[in-house]
What does this fold into?
Amino acid sequence: MRTTYFPTRPSRMSSVLDDFFNLDLPAVKFNLNENWTPKANIQESDDAWHIELMVPGMKKEDFVLELENNRLVIKAELEESKEDTKYNYREFSVRSFERSFNLPKGMVDEEKISAKYNEGILNVEVPKLEIAKNRGLRTIEIQ
It folds into this structure.
């Protein structure tokens, strides 16, 4: 059996000791979620572009989708909840965000853009106009 050492991976004992000794100390940490941007997947089919945003912990009412000058803007404006709960350590929270996507000019059926939110994933369907559907692979002759 061969064991590989990962020098950047903390040992389990080190993690336990860090947790024990830092229990009563105020955490001095920077907030990684301050400028949070959700992760996206974009797929293209023959008749539409499909955008998926991973945004768990939200409700469909939290989202605003706007389209202006071929730019699709997806945002959520959330207020930080004023909870009475005191956390010793807190790693997750739901944050506001804004993400935009530049759409190809003259290729999008703007009136038929739709969105659904289910199980933490926002799915946006951006249908293509007929002119975009008929654009296939074209070979260009070199002269």
Observations:
- The first strand starts at residue 40 and ends at 44.
- Residues 116 and 123 are 5 Å apart (CA to CA).
- Residues 1-8, 24-33 have pLDDT under 50 and may be disordered.
- The longest helix spans residues 12-21.
